[in-house]
């Protein structure tokens, strides 16, 4: 089992920044990908960014490329999402996910472990 705890959400004006953290505990060695997803009211959960925890390979959604940065601190078993130049359309509940994957690393159904989510609200 892997436990994920997100933090760092909040309310910010458009153009502002937030940094989300996801602390992992438990059998983290049983996973090879960690990712951030988000879900706005009435919309499907969508992938924002993911990182291969061994190789460091990173992938971003086109909508956040150049504005968001995913990173990891292996010593702390923590993954971060630095969000800059935030837009109102970034408003959503943000979830951290982890899993053992060999394909479809941008699909929510590929991830076994999920955090409780942290709310990000961007006002115009």
Characterise the protein shown here.
This protein is mainly beta. It has no helices and 11 strands. The chain has strands at 2-7, 10-13, 18-26, 33-39, 46-52, 58-60, 68-73, 78-83, 92-99, 113-114, 118-123. The strands form 2 sheets. Strands 2, 4, 5, 6, 9, 10 and 11 form a 7-stranded mixed β-sheet that branches. A 4-stranded antiparallel β-sheet has the order 1-3-8-7, with no helix packed on it. A hairpin with a 5-residue loop joins strand 5 (46-52) and strand 6 (58-60). It is globular, with a radius of gyration of 13 Å.
Topology:
Elements: E1 2-7, E2 10-13, E3 18-26, E4 33-39, E5 46-52, E6 58-60, E7 68-73, E8 78-83, E9 92-99, E10 113-114, E11 118-123
Parallel strand pairs: 2-11
Antiparallel strand pairs: 1-3, 3-8, 4-5, 4-9, 5-6, 7-8, 9-10, 9-11
Order of helices and strands: EEEEEEEEEEE
Secondary-structure-based class equals: mainly beta
Say how many strands there are.
11
Low-pLDDT segments, ≥5 res: none
Mean pLDDT: 96
Measured distance between first and last alpha carbons: 40 Å
Instruction: Note the overall shape.
Output: globular
Fraction of residues in helices? Answer: under 10%
Major sheet: size, sense and barrel closure? 7 strands, mixed
Cα radius of gyration in angstroms? 13 Å
Percent strand:
over 45%
Q: Number of DSSP helices?
A: 0
Summarize the structure.
The protein is mainly beta and 124 residues long. It has strands at residues 2-7, 10-13, 18-26, 33-39, 46-52, 58-60, 68-73, 78-83, 92-99, 113-114, 118-123.
